[in-house]
Each structure stands twice: as structure tokens, then as C-alpha cells.
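Can anyone check this?
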Amino acid sequence: LDRANATVWGVGAKPAATITVSLGGSASSWKATVSADGAWTVSLGGQPPGAGHTLSVKGSDGSSAQLTDVAFGDVLLCSGQSNSTPQPYPLAPAPCALGLLTRPPP
């Protein structure tokens, strides 16, 4: 995740439910209210660079998910010309972890 402004989002939760996101080893937690279409977004703000974090997401409806070995750092996107040779392999979306990252935030 981008260490400057890490954002976590998800869909499929019950509207008006409260989502709580926490990082293992941190006393901080972040909350969001689920919108009418089931989407939610939480900004974790700036985080120190590093890996091995555990990200926990809990819903007020009893649902929960956990991601392990989460890393924070500088995220760089590179691109090239469409007529470059050889063509880079197409990038497929990373598998969704327990449905947490199914679409970009609204």
C-alpha cells in the first residue's frame, strides 16, 4: 500500500453498517459507514514504510477479514509506448483478498 496515503475499500457490506479497520501492533483504528450501494472506504493516512503488517477489517454485522504480510512503501507505476518491442505481458488484477479489494474507491 502507498505509505503516503494508504486507502482500503470494499463492497458487499450491509448499508449503514460500521466497518472498523485496524493494523496489528497499532493502537489506531479507522471507521467507515457503508453506503447505500454496499461500498465503503477508509483512509489510513500516512504509514511508515515496512512489511509484515496484519490488516483486520470487521463489520458491525459480525463479518470480518484479515490480510497478512501487508507492506507500506512507495508505489510507482511505470508505462511505455504501445508500440514498444517486445510487448510487456498484460497485467491481470491481483486476486481479491476475501473480497476487500474488488473495485477502486468511489
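Reply from J.R.: I decoded it. Confidence is low (pLDDT under 50) at residues 91-102.
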